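Changelog note: in this version the structure field was regenerated for every chain. One regenerated record is shown below for reference.
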Amino acid sequence: MSEVLLAVGTEKGLFLGRSRDRKVWDFTGPIFPMNGVYAIGIDNRDGRTRLLVGADSSHWGPSVWHSDDLGETWLEPTTPAVRFPEHTGAALARLWQLQPAGPEAPGVVYAGTEPAALFRSTDGGVSFDFVEALWSHPQREQWGAGFGGQGLHTILTDPKDPAALTVAVSSGGVYRSGDGGASWRPSNTGIKVSFLPEEYPEFGQCVHKIAPDPVLPDRRYLQNHGGVFRSDDAGDSWQPIENGLPATFGFAVATHPRRSGVAYLAPLEADFMRMPPDHRCRIYRTEDGGEHWAPLTLGLPGEDHYGVVLRDALRCDDADPAGVYFGNRNGELYASADEGDSWRLIKSHLPDILCVRAAVVPVS
């Protein structure tokens, strides 16, 4: 027997929802109360489900916890799981991402941080090693910081090649490695920048999120600071895909777990006007790789709405049909059990929602 586990990170802790029919939900939380939870990973490899949470306490600082019993109990390392080496002169401000690799790299989990850096675990997220080569890249010192800070917020692994990695930094852009992180190169050709003198620089883009196509491993979808793009060559080049969108600014992008060409966006009016276009709560979906986008509205509020969906707060589960979930800074959590065709408000009055993860998990 199985159910869908929905993990929701907020400004004031973690909330866990569980449902067997995706209609009736049972929520628990807050776990880690008064901690900002910016990073969640659900690792279903090795015949067990491990939850990974990066929580940020204003008193104790950032840390990583894990649970192997669907959140009933949690373990924290006795020494910091993620720590900058002394020679960097840096200190961990926040965990932005916890990303389990695929079955091609058993036990490997990546962490992205602020300041922007990459860490790698080989023990399922209990301890992490610093990826020195990215930090030492000659362009790193010229990276800027997005409005929310300089965070490494996207980590993509390649199911056909465990040595291939893609990361994204605000505001540094996209970087790729083909040798397991030993060397890195910028990968931003075609991504336009509106806030720099040069429109198409080699690096410095404020990339907000990248999501991989589930079938075509070299296809990725990218939401930029003012632009939506697709790559069909693993990031060597990017092309705009904006037909049908009411705006090109936004934070989040998510992809279907099985259907190629299906992706979801939560547009915002502009960088200087961070609210939904026309003040309407809408998710946009493409079913043809971004050639066309259409609004999904059934069940979403019809009145004026101002909720902002952050970069990690839009996600699909791996059920069939796929569920789609998003939360906003109004503390509203919406769910679709039919791939976005219709929506239900499943939780409200939460703290600001920072990230959402969902997966089918086995239960006894």
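Spot check on this record: The chain has one helix and 27 strands. The chain has a mean pLDDT of 95.
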